[in-house]
Amino acid sequence: MSKYRNLVIGTALATSLGAAPALADKLGLGRPALPEEIAAWDIDVSPDGTGLPVGSGSVEDGEMIFSENCAVCHGEFAEGVDNWPKLAGGQGTLDREDPLKTVGSYWPYLSTTWDYVNRSMPFGNAQSLSDDDVYAIVAYILYSNDLVDDDFVLSNENFLEVEMPNAEGFIIDDRAETEYPHWTGEPCMTDCKDSVEITMRAAVLDVTPDEEGAEPAAEAAAPAQEEAAAPAEQAPAEEAAAAPAEAAPAEVAAVDPELVAAGEKVFKKCKACHEVGDGAKNKTGPQLNGVLGRDIASIEGFRYSKTFMDMVGQTWDAASMDAFLADPKGFAPKTKMSFAGLKKEDDRAAIIAYLQSLQ
Amino acid sequence: MIRKSDQNNVTVTKGEAMTDSSNPWSTRRGFLKAGLAAGGAVAAGGAAHAAGDPLITETQPWAQGLGDGVDATPYGLPIKYEGDVVRRNVEWLTADTISSINFTPIHALDGTITPQGCAFERHHSGAIELRKEDYRLMINGLVDQPLVFTYEDLERFPRVNKTFFLECAANTGMEWAGAQLNGAQFTHGMIHNMEYTGVTLRTLLEEAGLGAAGDLKDKWVYVEGADASSNGRSIPMEKALDDCMIAFKANGEALRKEHGYPVRLVVPGWEGNMWVKWLRRIEVMDQAVQSREETSKYTDTLEDGTSRKWTWVMDAKSVVTSPSPQSPIKHGPGPLVVTGLAWSGRGAIERVDVSTDGGKTWQTARLAQPGQPMALTRFYLDINWDGSEMFLQSRAMDSTGYVQPTKAQLREVRGLNSIYHNNCIQTWWVKANGEAENVEVS
């Protein structure tokens, strides 16, 4: 236990509890939470399994679900893509230079993995997975870490039997014993050391972001630089949405500004992978400026999946985009598009209007 | 037009502002070049001209014409000349800006309050837009009556005002293995300090009633946000009842979207990740959830491979904000203000010492105000710089008697892989030309 906790338990807590309010102190604000509301939000899962729903999922199913929903960032084998987290490997590296911390090498409780996948993944489409899908994905992550065999099925019943390699690898904050006593007291003021030599310089590494972006702003009023200093939130997308008709072709001129604005909101689901607006770059998915009316798989420098390469010669129009967004995996199986799709026709119409505004 | 005179001074013709980018004084590098070209230190602004300073002797446009009327900017932003005082990102740190962090420009700020507009951001699933009308806060778990509050409900509880720093546990985390990023903004900018208005967490917990929790000693409060990450954290009941706040205003106005509008949690002195933004649920529990953010992240790996968990409190720390790599000395030898920030999650800052020789000798700096618990403290050391190089360091001491350690001391206990909670003494190598660099010294 930390010094803080001991201290508080011993003193402050005692007094604060002594002053615990009587019912009369309540203000009667708020309203009772309904059971169905609590059920909707209280989804946390604890290490002892509290909160786990009934369900199960196999490594075999997990491989497919992981490939569709997770591999775009985490890799087909949970090895991680680019700077996105690696979920597998790294066992035995924690005491080495640059340890690799994964579910297998570092995470002490399996409940954490289940809880996190269930509440926050996939990135940009959280809480879209069924309980069984989550069990299957967690089973596959365990398999990727060589912790279970390929015929393993994870369920609420065997959940606590899985042993996590680093379960015993943590200690509770011990700074109060190992550090504070040594670093307390009157410090040295004079003749504290004989010599001072430089042992390392940041300039040699040269990994600091370039100052050029900031410096021009100091040059007072040069107009171009004011833009550079403008908050990033006034992003091109908003400007484009505000004036959709002018620059767009005739058939797009009729686009409803309200629909465009609604589409911009829906597009937030897409922003994890797709950029739009001035200077939009390819990310996990291609940039989408002018995608309506564009040939499929036509953005240079983006590595399209085979499915899309096979569609070369076709064009994205409102109908094909609607079909794709309604059921991405049905329209184009095995692409990098891990998005589950937009079930509501209104959402699809709005996003298509928004994309049309970005010519 | 702007032209250089023989004396290497800048002359501005009447009616034209000094806005041309060819002005060598307008950038740091340009300034230093010009200064060196002129034979060392120059006093740019106040130098006496033979015929008097035209900024004084000639009528300037701002003294002749008119400025903006009221309402030109219904909500004011900093004047354009301060356009470089902004948050900045280090792209290589993260895969994407949506789950990422940027840095407060502490090198260019003074005082202690951080303006919201340049206070660093850290999101796990991006900054969401949540209207007050759509806001709900649930308290459930081991409480007598699970409750749901609207935003309006929260405004009807008795309010408190308190100023606290928020420091990300990873602040200075890139510096464990060596001097890496060249600027106080990047080495120490995962911090801000605001005056919060809100209600205490204790008030809300008591409204729901803690009788059902029984003995509170071993109980926990789990908190989560409304964004896709939800960023759940477990807080011991002692802390929850001690000083945590449910905040809806910062520095007098509504929280910014990027800081959790409309409601965030304030956990004074403890790592920023626990200050859950867009707070939507508080659950009283009999165990810690051991969420992703308190197991796989925000745990500190030691040299032998074991890791500390529940390292919540931020230890005493300080940094010289100016001079520093992004804030070089431009005026040459003579009077120099050395200034910086100090803070401690375990109490108030009582003293800050500054060394100009890399830690051989120390002088006690002047605190602008007496230190307040768990809030930033501004310090100044007013010196007469002789123009020789300096190794500037600062060393904070808090009300527990704790002295900010050196990087060597930290490494001795923790090794190089801790990532979090690096509160080491920082060294800036200030060179004779006034430029500064992030270095490590023996």
Helix content of chain A: 25-40%
CATH architecture of the largest domain in chain B: Alpha-Beta Complex
How big a fraction of the residues of chain B is strand? 25-35%
How large, in whole angstroms, is the Cα Rg of chain B? Answer: 25 Å
- Largest Cβ-defined interface: A-B, 109 and 123 residues
Main sheet overview of chain B: 5 strands, mixed
Q: In order across it, which strands form the biggest sheet of chain B?
A: 7-6-15-10-11
pLDDT < 50 runs, ≥5 residues of chain A? 1-24, 212-253
Q: Name the strands of the widest sheet of chain A in spatial order.
A: 2-3
Given helix and strand content, the structural type of chain B is mainly beta
CATH topology of the largest domain in chain B: Sulfite Oxidase, Chain A, domain 2
Summary keywords:
heterodimer; A: 359 residues; mainly alpha; Cytochrome Bc1 Complex, Chain D, domain 2; two-stranded antiparallel sheet; 17 helices; 5 strands; globular; disordered N terminus; B: 442 residues; mainly beta; Sulfite Oxidase, Chain A, domain 2; Immunoglobulin-like; 3 domains; 5-stranded antiparallel β-sheet
What does it look like?
The complex is a heterodimer of chains A (359) and B (442). With 359 residues, chain A is mostly helical. Among the domains of chain A are: 3-8 and 41-161, Cytochrome c-like domain (Cytochrome Bc1 Complex, Chain D, domain 2); 236-357, Orthogonal Bundle (Cytochrome Bc1 Complex, Chain D, domain 2). Chain A contains 17 helices and 5 strands. Chain A has helices spanning 3-18, 35-41, 59-69, 71-74, 110-120, 131-144, 175-178, 202-205, 215-218, 223-229, 236-242, 244-247, 257-266, 306-309, 318-326, 328-331, 345-357, and strands at 31-32, 56-58, 153-155, 170-172, 198-201. In chain A, strands 2-3 form a two-stranded antiparallel ribbon. In chain A, helix 15 packs across helix 17. The longest helix of chain A has 16 residues, at 3-18. The relative contact order of chain A is 0.09. Chain B is mainly beta. Chain B folds into 3 domains: 2-64, no CATH class; 116-308, Sulfite Oxidase, Chain A, domain 2; 317-439, Immunoglobulin-like (Sandwich). Helices cover 11% and strands 29% of the residues of chain B. In chain B, the strands form 7 sheets. In chain B, strands 7-6-15-10-11 form a 5-stranded mixed beta sheet. In chain B, strand 20 and strand 21 form a beta hairpin. Residues 1-44 of chain B have low confidence and may be disordered. Strand 5 of chain A pairs antiparallel with strand 26 of chain B, so a sheet runs across the interface.
